[in-house]
C-alpha cells in the first residue's frame, strides 16, 4: 500500500474509534446539545414577542424572531459540540492511550484527524437535530434557493472544521479533561455576545466592537442571509476568512503540540 493509503486507513480507524466512543458515551454530547435547545425554546416562547417587537419596531411576532435567531443557535450548537473534542483529546493524552498509539506503526497524524473528522460529523448531526426542532416549532426557509441552502451547509461544515481544530489545540494544551472543558468555554460564550439574539448595531457603543470583531457575528449574518434569502454583503467573505484563519491556526497549533509531546 502507498503511504497515502496507509494514512487514510489509519485515519479511518481512529475515526471509527472516536465515533464508537461517542455512541457508547453520549452524555457529553447530549449535555452540550442541551444548551442551544434550551436557549432556542426560551427565547422563542418566553422572550419571542418582546424581542421581535424591539428589533422590528412593530408588533410582536414570535415567528419572525424565530427566523432571526435560528442561524445563531445553529452556530452556537457547533461551538458547544466541539467542546467535546477538546475534552476527548485531553482525555486521550492524559490516560496514556496516545503513548500506546505512538509505539505502533500508524500514521502520526491519524490520531488528530480521527478526532477532527469525528467532531465535525457530530457537529453536523447536532445541527441537524437542532434544525429539525426549529422546523418543528415553526421555522421556515422558503425564500432561500437551492444554491443558498448548499452554501449554508458548506459554511456550517467549514465553521465546524475551523472550531474543531481550535478545540483540539485546547485539548492538547490542557493538563486534564476538566481544564480542557474550561479552556473551550469561549466557544460557547462568544455566540452570546454576537448578533445571534439582537442586531449588533443596537448594542451600546462600548460593547458593539466585541460583537462585531469576532468570528461568530459574520458567520451568523452570512448564514442568516443564506437561509432567509436576504443579502449577505461583505459578511460572506469575512466569515470564510475567519474560518480559514482559525482552521490554519488550529491545525499548526495542534500539530506542534502533538509533535512536541512525541519528543
From TrEMBL:
Transport listed as a keyword: yes
Keywords carried by this UniProt record: Antibiotic resistance, Cell membrane, Membrane, Transmembrane, Transmembrane helix, Transport
Superkingdom per UniProt: Bacteria
Domain (ABC transmembrane type-2): residue spans on this chain: 27-261
Primary location: membrane
Annotated compartments: Cell membrane; Membrane
Membrane topology label: Multi-pass membrane protein
Sequence intervals crossing the membrane: 25-48, 68-90, 111-137, 149-168, 180-198, 236-258
Family the entry assigns: Belongs to the ABC-2 integral membrane protein family.
Classification via PANTHER family: NODULATION PROTEIN J (PTHR43229)
Record protein name field: Transport permease protein
Native organism: Streptomyces tubbatahanensis
Lineage, broadest ranks: Bacteria, Bacillati, Actinomycetota, Actinomycetes, Kitasatosporales
Amino acid at each position: 500500500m502507498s503511504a497515502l493509503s496507509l494514512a487514510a486507513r489509519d485515519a479511518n480507524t481512529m475515526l471509527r474509534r472516536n465515533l464508537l466512543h461517542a455512541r457508547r458515551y453520549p452524555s457529553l454530547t447530549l449535555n452540550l446539545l442541551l444548551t442551544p435547545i434550551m436557549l432556542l425554546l426560551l427565547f422563542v416562547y418566553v422572550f419571542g414577542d418582546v424581542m421581535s417587537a424591539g428589533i422590528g419596531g412593530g408588533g410582536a411576532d414570535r415567528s419572525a424572531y424565530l427566523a432571526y435567531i435560528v442561524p445563531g443557535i445553529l452556530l452556537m450548537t457547533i461551538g458547544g459540540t466541539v467542546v467535546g473534542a477538546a475534552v476527548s483529546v485531553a482525555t486521550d493524552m492524559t490516560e496514556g492511550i496516545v503513548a500506546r498509539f505512538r509505539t505502533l506503526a500508524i500514521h502520526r497524524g491519524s490520531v488528530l484527524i480521527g478526532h477532527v473528522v469525528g467532531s465535525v460529523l457530530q457537529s453536523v448531526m447536532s445541527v441537524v437535530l437542532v434544525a429539525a426542532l426549529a422546523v418543528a416549532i415553526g421555522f421556515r426557509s422558503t425564500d432561500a434557493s437551492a444554491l443558498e441552502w448548499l452554501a449554508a451547509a458548506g459554511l456550517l461544515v467549514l465553521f465546524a472544521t475551523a472550531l474543531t481544530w481550535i478545540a483540539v489545540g485546547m485539548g492538547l494544551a490542557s493538563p486534564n479533561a476538566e481544564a480542557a472543558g474550561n479552556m473551550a468555554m469561549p466557544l460557547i460564550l462568544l455566540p452570546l455576545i454576537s448578533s445571534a439574539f439582537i442586531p449588533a448595531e443596537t448594542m451600546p457603543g462600548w460593547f458593539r466592537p466585541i460583537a462585531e470583531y469576532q468570528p461568530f457575528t459574520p458567520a451568523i449574518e452570512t448564514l442568516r442571509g443564506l437561509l432567509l434569502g436576504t443579502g449577505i454583503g461583505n459578511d460572506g467573505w469575512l466569515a470564510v476568512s475567519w474560518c480559514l484563519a482559525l482552521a490554519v491556526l488550529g491545525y499548526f497549533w495542534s500539530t506542534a503540540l502533538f509533535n512536541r509531546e512525541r519528543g
